[in-house]
Each structure stands twice: as structure tokens, then as C-alpha cells.
Amino acid sequence: MFHRNIKLILAGLIIATGIWQFTENNIGNGIFLILFSLIFILLYFKNEFILLAFLKLRKQDFPGAQKWLSYIKNPETSLVRKQQGYYNYLHGLMLSQTNLTQSEKYFKKAIELGLSMDMDLAVAKLNLAGVAMSRRRKIEATNLLAEAKKLDKQGMLKDQIKMMKDQMKKI
Questions:
Q1: Which residues contact residue 39 at a Cβ distance below 8 angstroms, ignoring those fewer than 6 apart?
Q2: Cα 100 to the chain's mean position, in Å?
Q3: Pairwise CA distance, residues 116 & 77, whole Å
Q4: Which pLDDT score, from 0 to 100, does residue 1 have?
Q5: Total H helices, total E strands in the chain
Q6: Is 118 exposed, middle or buried (0-12, 13-18, 19+ CB in 10 A)?
Q7: Angle between helix 4-23 and 27-45 (nearest 10)
Q8: For a Cys staple, 52 with which of 19, 26, 28, 68, CB 3.0–4.6 Å?
Q9: Is the dihedral of CA 134, 139, 144, 150 positive or negative?
Q10: Under the phi-then-psi rule, with left for phi > 0, alpha for psi from -120 to 50, and beta for the rest, what region is 119?
């Protein structure tokens, strides 16, 4: 919605207004304004359109997620590096259903830019392993599966990793 620097400027102005309210003995208003400024600081680190796209993906609404991501016009300039990683990660997840070559490009870029959660990194590497396996690149797929298994600390991808290893034995 707003450029990332505008969010920080708005947060700074609201904090300054909150401090002014403290000096005027309007303590309640000051506390409210300080807490209100935290919203803009949060949205600096977590883009609102990416959050809404994640909510749509949880409901398996791919067109809805695509709609929210389409609101981000220049991801290179308007997003922080980690947000760019998640932008590419979401595009890769949506394209993995239809276009494997495009999804591979997005997943590689997401891994390069960085993802903050190990689970997201494991899912990206698992999808890349699936693409490598479909292209008969067994060594690359094995390496990616090993990395995904290492990153999957909760064991949520254990079944998918086992299934892919079984499929690789057939190749």
C-alpha cells in the first residue's frame, strides 16, 4: 500500500505525536499512539499484501493469492530482501501446480534472497527436488532432499520426502 520508507516516516510522526501527548498530560492518547505506530513498524517488516496472499493460500485459493500479489508493482524496490524472497516463494508455490520451469526459477530466487523460516526453506527445496527429479537430475534431487530433511525439524515433510526417495529409486 505505502512504500516502505513512508511506513517508517508515518511511524515516526505518530510516535512524535504520542510523545507530544505525553507532555500535554494526555497519557491515554500517548499510549494509544505509540501502540498504533507499532502497526506501521510491523508492516515495514511484513508486507501486508504478502500476508494476505499467505492467508489465501492457506484456503487453497490460488486466484485470490495471485490477486493480492499482483498489487505489488515493483518488488525489487518496494520490498525488503526477505519480503522479496517470500514474494518469489509464493509465486513458486502457485506455479508449481502448473508450470514447473517457471516455479523452479522462482524457488531458486527465493532461496537466494532468503526465507526466514526453516520450514519454508524446506518446502522450497523439496519442490526444487521434485523439479530436478522430473528432469532426471538424480544427484541434484538427492542433495536437495537431504537439505530439506535437515531443515524439517518438526517432521512435517517426512512423508513427502520418503515418497520422493521411493520414486527416485524407480528412476
A1: none
A2: 19
A3: 19
A4: 61
A5: 10, 0
A6: middle
A7: 170
A8: 68
A9: positive
A10: alpha
Ramachandran sector of residue 114 (left: φ over 0; alpha: ψ -120 to 50; beta: rest): left
Cell of 98: 502448473
Diameter over CA atoms, the chain: 75
> Which residue type, as a one-letter code, is found at position 103?
S
The C-alpha cell at 29 is 492518547
More confident residue, 38 or 170: 38
User: Over the range 38-51, which residues count as b (16 or more CB within 10 Å of their CB) and which as e?
Assistant: eebbebbeebbbbe
| Apex 111 CA angle, 110 and 112, nearest 5 | 90
User: Phi/psi at 26 (nearest 5 deg)?
Assistant: -105, 75
- Report CA Rg, the chain: 21
The sign of the torsion formed by the CA atoms of 72, 76, 80, 84 equals: positive
Measured distance CA(87)–CA(49) in Å, rounded:
9
What is the reported pTM?
0.81
pLDDT tens-digit map of 4-34? 788 899 999 999 999 999 999 999 999 999 9
Sequence-ordered list of residues with C-beta below 8 angstroms from that of 113, at least 6 positions apart, any chain: 81, 82, 84, 85, 88
Distance between CA atoms of 78 and 50, rounded to whole angstroms? 12
Sequence-ordered alpha helix ranges (H) in 24-99: 27-45, 48-58, 62-70, 75-78, 81-95
